[in-house]
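Notes on consecutive records. When two proteins share a document, each keeps its own sequence and its own token line. Never mix them. Below: protein one.
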Amino acid sequence: MASLLIAEAVQTLASGPQVHANTPVVQLIESALQRGEGRLAANGAFVAYTGSRTGRSPKDKFTVDDSTTHTLVDWGKVNQPFSPERFEALLERVVEHMRERDLFVQDLYSGADPAYRLPIRIITEYAWHALFVRQLFVRPEPSELAAHVPEFTVIAAPEFEAVPERDGTRTGAFILADFTRKIILIGGTKYAGEMKKSIFGVMNFLVPQRDVLPMHCSANVGADGVTALFFGLSGTGKTTLSADPARRLIGDDEHGWSATGIFNFEGGCYAKCADLSEEKEPQIFRAIRFGSVLENVVLDPATREPDYTNIQLTENTRVAYPVGYIENAVVPGIGGHPSNVMFLAADAFGVLPPIARLTPDQAMYHFLSGYTAKLAGTEAGMGSDPVPEFSAAFGAPFLPLAPLVYAEMLGKRLKQHQAACWLVNTGWSGGKFGVGKRMSIRVSRALVSAALNGHLEGVEFVKEPAFGLHIPVTCPDVPPEVLNPRNAWADKDAYDRQAADLAARFEANFQQFDAPEAVRAAGPGKR
């Protein structure tokens, strides 16, 4: 199929008689219910179930290798190449599949800042998928729709299964990015997060060329108007700590840092629901209402009340809602240059301090490392010990370019705006998982608030020996014995052995980066 015919075929998907274009939220919910795609919970949220795939399928993600991408993309396990010819053939099959179905089309933007926003079009065969993207991305004003011309199109066909032997995919599921045709092709998976993260990958490819740093982080702003960023992998508290009743939320997951400040790539939030409660996370809990989309959350059969403690389907239960559902959110999601940047790690080894102030070189080191720890039992085949997870820039699965591209941009921004950088351990203290205890949300909030409000500026700091991190001796509302991780362990020798082991794992992971010597020297075991 020639490129012109491909464009025409995709256009027919968005304009045929069976197409429901830019349908508002209420009608999408009605359609989804009528089509049997899910049901309403007692709190009014729409609940959908995604079958066997309850999370992203990173091994099924490919990028078309052609003249647009060949010299720019960091090819490897994350960015797997796919031939243009096979993409074209698979696209033709998906188009034929979609032509036989009712389709739901949403014209939206990625990027709250009009100077940098990307017009996108999402074509789906599920009404609830259209509801998901409408709530998650930035909606055009009604007056803007006529002039909306999509630069990228996402075609989501969950009912279409690839044939690996024929199509060149790994399994029946596929997530394909073609930066020349500007099409994202998704099939064989009902998990809505694939649409969200595919566009994040597109932004990570495009916006660095416009001197914008794309970031897998949340952002909020204080009463003083000063912005803070929160980087962290899943489960580290990125969404929870940024949804602070004392601060205004800009966004919970994806942002750009431009020459003028911070802006949200999205218009909504995508929060984890496991063990959610109003007491621990009041803003997120109250945001789940009519118009929100719950994924794989078990409902009480009699009352339809969500049971957030029930993770029998998956630990990755999720909710999507517009950022405006968060009380006192910043809409549109634009803020000034940050004064504080937080790197969150759920260290299940109990080694890292609850909070540490990083030097600029340490900030680069820990940004490239992107550390957290997986817990025993969360994945099939894991043993009883935690497993370290390193993800460059706290978002390796979404980085088309080499990690050093993003790290150098971050270093430049931190230096330009003299932003303080902090490493915050939201994981374990007093021992590793199974021995120590996890930091309470109350303690983590107190530490973060102290850093953001300047309460640590006049406090004495000491250097701990394992990682060379500078840690405060005191912090308001935090027991002093918690601040030094070694002091929190009853068995000091056991701490030293665990710290040495984790430091060695950091160093082994960092060997992949051709970083400047000053950054290498900022890692553990260098002093």
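Protein two starts on the next line and is unrelated to protein one.
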Amino acid sequence: MKILKNSALGAAVAVTLAAQTAPGTRQLPSHSDVSPDLLTMMLSQPMASVQEPALYVHKHGPTLEDVGEAQTSSVTSPLTPAFVQNETVAAPAFSAVPGANFEGLGTGTVGYTVSVAPPDTTLAVGPNHLVQWVNSHIAIYNKAGLPLLAAPGFVAGNTLWSGFGGVCESTNRGDPIVAYDKIADRWVFSQFAFAVSGSNPTTPYVQCFAVTQGSNPAGPYNRYSYDFSTMVSGFNGSTGQFNDYGKIGVWPDAYYMTYNAFGGVPAGSNSGVILCAHERAAMIAGTAAVMLCAPVNFYGGGASFLPSDLEGSTTAPPAGRPNFMIRQNTTTQLRMLKFKVNNFSPGSFTFDDGFGGGSGSVVNIPFPILRACNGSGLICIPQPGAATQLDTLGSRLLYRLGYRNRGGVESLVGSMSEDPDGAGAQQAAIRWFELRAPAANPPQLFQNGTFNPDATNRWMPSIGMDKNGNIAMGYSVSSGTVFPGIRITGRLRSEVRNRMQSETTIINGTGSQTVNLSGTALTRWGDYSTMRVDPADDCTFWFTTEYMAVNGVFNWRTRIAAFKFPNCTP
């Protein structure tokens, strides 16, 4: 195993960012209703067949870096050091036992036609069901991989909003997220919706939600939409904030969402980040659910935060614990803030370091990293026999930021891509971390490492932790000789810190993503994968992402696979 040494870790400090000019946004849903179940909607509007044009690739665009910050420290205690693997040591064999491993939505699904890219593959796991959602369609499976929806076994994503009206019903734009709320035994579905002007999104900019009324992911649903069209950014003065790349964190007091904002009408350049709390109790009850959002300009210097997402069904966070939101900053640190809703009345929330810093202050956690693609975090992953290279999204922390409370030991686990050899031949490896005591002053970077066992590129990771504290990561692999495929690795809590076991293969790729008929390279990949822990035993990991089986474009496939460490028992 080749593991690279990272520079020493320093102290955690809080940083107060550019002062905001507004107290934030409080909004009731622009529309809400209660729907019938999914089968009824399928029959009344078969397939809800709103499909995006075959060459439509939804916007994500470059995001801002840290600029214009007032470097005012309010947290100065030294961070507990954590050593990063820095020697060549034979890794332990991967000890998790494989379970189900079956084809998800994609060209490997009978009757399914891929017409958008990337798939934005997301997955949720409940006691009896799996739900996979890719950019245009949803499938529900049992845990043996049997599709449970009526033929053809999947529905368009916007079927969830049949009869709802507006762009939630009439468009099917993607950026989907599905989660299982273990506390309430509910399923939460969300995707954005918008009009298009030329090749750019334009108003209305909407986020659509559907929350099940019971434990069945096939509904019925409490449905909501929220409009970002009039939201203002003080960073660049633009009105109308396109809510891109939404990510959910299930938390006891709210469903927390983070978005990258692209300001203007139609959407222009990145204007910062939108951080929101959606009234979870009201969404579950089917009543008017408030959305509270921090001012867009509070973090005009950066984007792509992730909210902490509750892992496990046994121990909740301590009472009153805020949601932790983290982003990767350029090359030297993680930025963490704490978003806390006191109630959903105007101004009843805080977003700061939690230690007396002003609104927008963050805890700065030293975390030296060289982003994938020799620092650019962009497009550089080679494939066999193809000139087209693939996008790494190496400029951001990748979904999910898993939170677990093991009897008072609180952990956050996250992962991203980094370049292991700078200007050398390799482009991407997996950087991961476990942050403990995230509410403490200071938090503890308990362990972190760069997983890079050979010259194959690894990127687009997702990470999770089971109830024993074991960690698993899944990711994409590719090189000039290795077709884009899927692998996983992991570690036992009892093993030496900062190290993963050897990897194992979920499925080998047998094709490369190339160019379309007009000769345009399709570089987009991901944009995210998903690792979840099964609430039925709090031990079994489920992972999904895309791979390639045949050379071409708009012909990706996905896989869903399960595995469990033998030391974790129900």
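For the record: Residues 38-44 form the longest helix (7 residues).
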